[in-house]
Design goal:
Helix content of chain B: 25-40%
Distance between the termini of chain B: 23 Å
Helix content of chain A: 25-40%
Largest interface: A-B, 53 and 45 residues
Strand order of the largest sheet of chain A: 5-4-6-7-1-8-13-12-11
Number of helices of chain A: 12
Strand order of the largest sheet of chain B: 3-2-4-7-1-8-11-10-9
Structural class of chain A: alpha+beta
Order of helices and strands of chain B: EHEHEHEHHHEEEHEHHHEHHHHEE
Number of strands of chain A: 22
Shape of chain A: globular
Radius of gyration of chain A: 22 Å
Oligomer: heterodimer
Strand content of chain A: 25-35%
Chain lengths: 477, 399
């Protein structure tokens, strides 16, 4: 079928989920905190908007083809001047000829790019990867309402999951909630004001226009993915327009939170995973206006099953102080051992960044793979050059492991060990998402893209890969 | 193989400070203290020293870079002075350099001095250091106990030993060293502790508890080496000689090539093999009378017993629990308390080990003196089990 379609999707949540009830209990004395139902997805100390976008993009990227264009979308990207899309390109080991761009500053940005991509006629694949880890203030309702996550979508020509029937956009400078350099945590207006204006002035007109453009009646929408600025918006919109479909994002909000720029893509993955060919989907991004898209399901969307799976898996926790520390809301005194300074050398990063960020080792002429590459191969007797070999998706197992309580770690204990890859490569690695009981020798591992080091003094961070247990636990409900 | 240094160099004098929290002593004070004891022991004049080697592993902590701290502290005459650094094997590395210089005939009298002033870091444990700006981009920053703790799980998996049994054997290692350290007036930790205390201690890095780990200390140790002829000329009758000094450094095979199972230290095995050959030792467990090994952590000592061929493969936990390496056992290990209780001022530790063997060979070990010691071994290990430098030396009497 000609035209641009949704080809693949990916959705990723961090392992940790804060029980909102636990946070509400901790804040009960103050009357602050907001809702207490469900979970808030919580980034580990070494996860950020970039790492989330990479994990989602790994799921959305076709295994046998590199997209010629990549978009990184986030309102919480860590750098003001450094291309995050460039980091994602390296993490996915895409060619340096990849066109890349960051979009930001509105939680609608990923959906805006999706609308542009689906309306385009280039025929080239474009991978849109969204990640979000938004700073919030303790006590504010949004701290518990928001969640951390990544979601990604691959758009291009060929067989796939959904095509665009019609779309409409509306731009409206609306300060329902904002964050700024001077006020990095969100400042929200009154819910009732937001709901009335968002529904009446922005969302209903845009959605009605998109339905008209698509030639689809509201009653024929099988599933909705509508980013609500505050709860109750969709109910009001549905009543006004005659939409009967549930809003798929309700599940996401309850189990993880509002995921910002990744929110709608996450919900779309849920919807596509459950849809049947011929279904019509309403997809609405909100923030400084609205983008409304009407899609028709044309087939299966590989990777979309990751959304439901990630919602069902995770590790619940109740320690509100741990959450405050992880989310950057509480600056604990970690003692003298945390004072270490490891300045990243820009020229070293220039030389080794592609291999480190992309987890690219080398295969010698005898077939042995090693990381990092070296002028003389590590295999005894091997000579000659090494051929680039990516390790990020290679199965691996534990050779040795420990939980280290002496080494500084923002979420102790520090877990690390020796990892053996099935292709022969081996290296000492940090572990992430490890259960409190530890990891056993021989256990299967997967690789996760994470922050390697934070240089708080200079505001810099580097990324590398960490080993995680192959299976995540099911979330205790 | 080359003829080696067996019996070609003797230790003519040794000194060692008390190890511990030496709040009132600078690194210069420690160097002078160890050196003065060694010089007095040797009966030499300072002017007779031809060359010196300074071992200091953590240059950023107090001692400083280069060989100048030693030359300044001792106000050495204008002679060649060199600083060596090879992680925790630094002390033996300094000794090796001095011994080689004398064996080569490059000098008559050489000094090896190791020093570290770790308690000025302001916290327990070793300071975190860069592993090189490129390695910092990917290598994990675990602590020393974290890296060595991994030996335990891998050893248990290799030999099918259950974790509780291994933990008990590890606890016995520490229990024994505390027993010995209590008899050593220069030891950092001089209190015997019970098995229950060791087993119930807070976890540092699974499965290493607090008492499975040596602390870090301030201290210095010094050896003065010369030729047998010069020593005899000084009127020395009982001469302690180096039967061998060997060293092995990882080349990345363990950490980067998929054949090592994580349950032993390859560099120790290789260094020991060569050291035994150089010393003419065929059956180390029968011929050695004493061993001072790098017991940075209890599990390190446990696997080292096999790496040094002092226990059969998979038998170290049982030999340990049987008391074979206790002071009353057939092969006393860490008679001075070891790193665990004598302490671990990194650059000094290898020389501290030699100091104990030297004193045991000369019958000067006081309440720790073993009845019969003809050959004693030192084993000094730096780095991690997967990226290590191991040094093995055998000391004995000159026949």
């Amino acid at each position: 079928m000609a035209g641009m379609i949704v080809k693949r999707m990916g959705a990723y949540l961090p392992l940790l989920r804060l029980r909102r009830r636990a946070a509400a209990d901790a804040l009960h004395w103050s009357g602050l905190g907001g809702g207490h139902k469900g979970y808030r997805s919580v980034a580990g100390w070494d996860e950020d908007a970039v790492s989330f976008a990479v994990e989602a993009a790994r799921l959305a990227k076709a295994p046998d083809a590199d997209p010629p264009a990549l978009v990184f979308a986030s309102t919480s990207a860590p750098f003001l001047e450094r291309s995050h899309a460039g980091i994602v390109v390296d993490a996915l080991a895409l060619p340096r000829t990849t066109r890349s761009v960051d979009v930001a500053n509105s939680r609608r940005c990923a959906v805006s790019m999706l609308a542009i991509a689906l309306s385009g006629s280039s025929g080239e694949d474009i991978l849109i990867a969204a990640g979000e880890r938004r700073p919030t203030a303790p006590g504010g309702a949004l701290q518990l309402a928001w969640g951390d996550a990544g979601a990604a979508i691959l758009v291009g020509e060929g067989p796939g999951g959904a095509r665009l029937l019609g779309a409409a956009s509306l731009t409206h400078d609306f300060a329902d909630v904002y964050a700024s350099r001077e006020h990095p945590t969100p400042y929200a207006s009154e819910d009732r004001f937001i709901r009335d204006v968002a529904v009446g002035d922005i969302m209903v007109p845009a959605i009605a226009s998109a339905l008209r453009a698509a030639g689809v009646a509201a009653a024929d929408i099988a599933a909705a993915v509508v980013h609500e600025p505050v709860s109750g918006c969709y109910r009001a919109i549905a009543a006004q327009l005659g939409l009967g479909a549930p809003n798929n994002l309700d599940r996401v909000v309850e189990a993880a939170g509002d995921l910002g720029a990744a929110h709608v893509l996450y919900g779309l993955a849920l919807a596509l995973d459950e849809a049947n060919p011929g279904d019509r989907l309403l997809v609405v991004g909100f923030g400084g206006g609205c983008d409304a898209l009407v899609l028709e399901v044309t087939g299966a969307t590989p990777g979309s099953d990751s959304a439901a799976r990630a919602l069902a898996q995770g590790q619940a926790f109740d320690e509100y102080v741990r959450f405050l520390s992880l989310s950057g809301s509480l600056d604990l005194d970690w003692g003298a051992r945390s004072e270490v300074e490891l300045k990243t050398s820009a020229s070293t990063l220039h030389r080794h960044g592609r291999d480190v960020t992309g987890f690219i080792g080398g295969r010698d002429t005898g077939g042995n793979v090693q990381f990092p590459k070296s002028p003389v191969p590590v295999a005894p007797g091997a000579t000659g050059g090494l051929i680039d070999t990516r390790l990020a998706d290679t199965p691996a197992t534990v050779v040795s492991f420990t939980s280290d309580r002496l080494a500084y770690c923002p979420d102790p204990p520090f877990k690390f060990g020796l990892v053996q890859f099935d292709n022969g490569a081996r290296l000492p690695m940090e572990f992430c998402d490890a259960p409190s009981g530890g990891i056993q020798v021989g256990e299967a591992l997967v690789m996760r893209f994470r922050v390697k080091a934070l240089d708080r003094k200079r505001g810099f961070r580097t990324y590398f890969w960490k080993a995680a247990p192959h299976q995540r636990p099911m979330l205790e409900i | 193989m080359a003829s080696g240094i067996r019996d070609r160099v003797v230790i003519v004098g040794m000194g060692c400070t008390a190890f511990g929290e030496r709040w009132n002593a600078s690194s210069e004070d420690l160097m002078v203290e160890a050196f003065d004891e060694a010089l007095t022991d040797a009966g030499l004049e300072r002017a007779s020293i031809d060359a010196a080697w300074l071992g200091s592993a953590l240059d950023d902590v107090n001692v400083g870079n280069s060989a100048l701290p030693l030359a300044f502290a001792l106000r050495l005459p204008p002679i060649p002075v060199t600083r060596v650094e090879n992680m925790c094997a630094t002390g033996t590395e300094a000794l090796r350099a001095a011994v080689y210089a004398v064996a080569a005939g490059a000098c008559d009298v050489a000094v090896a001095l190791g020093v570290e002033k770790l308690k000025d870091t302001g916290y327990g444990g070793l300071p975190l250091r860069t592993k090189g700006v490129a390695n910092d981009l990917w290598m994990p920053y675990g602590s020393a106990p974290g890296t060595f703790a991994q030996l335990a799980g891998a050893y248990a998996a290799r030999h099918g030993i259950i974790a509780e049994d291994l933990k008990r054997a590890m606890a016995h290692v520490s229990w024994k060293s505390h027993q010995n350290g209590a008899l050593n007036p220069k030891a950092h930790l001089r209190k015997a502790v019970s098995m229950e205390t060791i087993l119930d201690a807070p976890m540092i890095a699974d499965p290493l508890g607090l008492f499975d780990c040596c602390g870090v200390s301030d201290g210095a140790a010094c050896a003065i080496v010369t030729t047998p002829d010069i020593a005899r000329g000084l009127g020395k009758r009982d001469l302690v000689t180096l039967k061998s000094v060997q060293l092995c450094a990882s080349n990345g095979w363990e950490s980067g090539y998929g054949q090592w199972d994580g349950a032993y230290v390859r560099t120790t095995r290789e260094a020991a093999k060569r050291a035994y050959q150089e010393a003419g030792i065929g059956d180390p467990s029968a011929e050695l009378g004493l061993a001072e090994v790098h017991d940075c952590f209890s599990v390190t000592e446990l696997v080292t017993m096999e790496d040094l061929q002092l226990s059969d493969e998979g038998r170290a936990p049982f030999d340990i629990l049987d008391g074979r390496f206790d002071r009353s056992g057939s092969l006393p290990c860490q008679a001075d308390g070891g790193l665990k209780c004598f302490g671990h001022p990194v650059g000094a530790s290898g020389l501290r080990m030699a100091y104990e063997v030297y004193n045991q060979l000369l019958g000067r070990a006081g309440p720790r003196q073993q009845a019969q010691v003809d050959l004693g071994l030192t084993h000094n290990l730096g780095g991690t089990p997967y990226n290590s430098v191991a040094a093995v030396a055998v000391l004995g009497r000159l026949d």
